[in-house]
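Workshop exercise sheet. Pairs work together: one partner reads the sequence aloud, the other fills in the structure field after running the prediction. Swap roles for the next sheet.
Pair: D.N. / O.F.
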Amino acid sequence: MNIEEIASEVSSSISLAKQIEPFSKRGLVLSLQEAYDVAGIVRQKLGQTKIIGRKIGFTNRNIWSIYNVDQPIWGPITTNSISFFESNFLTIDLSQFCEPRIEPEIVVCLKQTPKDGSEKTEIYLDWIAPGFEIVDSIYPNWKFSLTDAIVSGGLHGCLAVGKKFKVNDRTERDLINVGVSLYRGGKLEEAGTGANVLDGPVSAIRYLHSGLSKIKNQDFLSAGDIITTGTMTDAKPIYPNEKWIAKFDGVVEAELNLEFFNKLT
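Structure field:
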């Protein structure tokens, strides 16, 4: 298969919410550059709306061995894939996904365009917020290679953003200390912290900024971009009629409630 054929199969899988065999299991080995090129073609085929930011995946080193990956990845956030909590409650239709999971994350908005491509550059934030990313695998049982994940848009399904909080000169350090407790139906599933996100959520943004400069045909970060920085816990499987709660503490203290349904059933 060539890159165009791979992109056609991926875009069809996403649009139909129908899983496919991982390309890596078919002996198709892609470089990182090829994988991101495929992801770009997939976006074009799906006719996705304007890109307004990025999701960063696999920033939690604690789960690398679970998914057989060894580095973070990224994918686009579009105007169609993002929603904002008007209160602390939101419903999400799961019929659009194949095998969705939930991740509690720290979401940020850039105030300024980062000035260089190094991992030490200053990152200036406009606001920060707690959020949920719904990630999805077009590959059965969440078994895939790193490049399989990249070609499918970094596994991004949708992003739900909670209350926005102001930032100050302590924000980078404070985000490392943010805690979250994730509940399903009132039962604690897992607790995590901002320290699980590489070396903190802002360090994940630096990683993304540097990584974009190393891959061709990537749009660089700019002021106003919304970035979800990666899961603070493992990704948990979700199903219709379930209710999930994330209780965040620290500088983004909030409680977010999600309820899932399937409009086709």
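Discussion prompt: The first strand starts at residue 51 and ends at 57. What would you look at next?
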